[in-house]
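Below sits our specimen:

——
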Amino acid sequence: MEDSKSGNMNRYAYAAAIGTERKRKKEVRDFLFSLFVDMQLYKIVGLAGPNIQDYIDYCKSKGFTEFEIYEKDGLVAMHQLIYLKDRVQLNLKDILHANAEQQYTLFDLDFCGTVRYLKDHIAKFKDRFIMTFSHRIPLEETISTFFGVRGETILKVDENKLPIAHTQYITNAGKYIYVGYKDTTPMCCFAKIA
C-alpha cells in the first residue's frame, strides 16, 4: 500500500540517505522558487521531510524568514527535532490542518504519494503553492486528476524548454507551471503562480 507507515519510513530513510545526490530536484526547485520572487513572500508553510535543516537553510537562501512545518509521522518529527537548529513552528499533524489563506506565504508541499491519493490536499490549497508528487501513474491521469479535483478547465497549454523543460497550463482559475523529472524516482511538480 502506498501510504503505509512502514512505506513512508522506508521512503524517508531512502531520501535521507541519498539527499545529497538529488541534483535534478534542486534544479527544479530553484526554477519553481524563482517564479515567486516578485511576490514579496516571506513565510513557508510546508513539508520539510527528514532533512529539515537542509530544507530550512535552502528556503532561507531564497529569502524566507518564517517557517510553519507539518509532519504527521511521529518518528520523522523526532528525527527533525534532533537536527533542527532554527526556530520553526513544527506541527505533528497533517498539512490539511494548515490555514491555506495566509498572506505572504508560499505553500511548499512535497508529498510522497501520487495525485490519486492526495485529492483533499490538492483541493485545499488555492494559490501560491508548489505541490510535488510521485509520478508513478500515467501523465494523463496525473493532469486530469489534479485539475479535475480543483474543478478547473484547461484553456491553454504551452510547452517550454527553457530554463528547464516545463509546461504552462492556463485554466479558468489561473496559471500553473508543471514540471516532470526523474531524480531518484519519477516525480512531478505543479506550481500555481497566478
In short: The chain has one domain: 5-192.
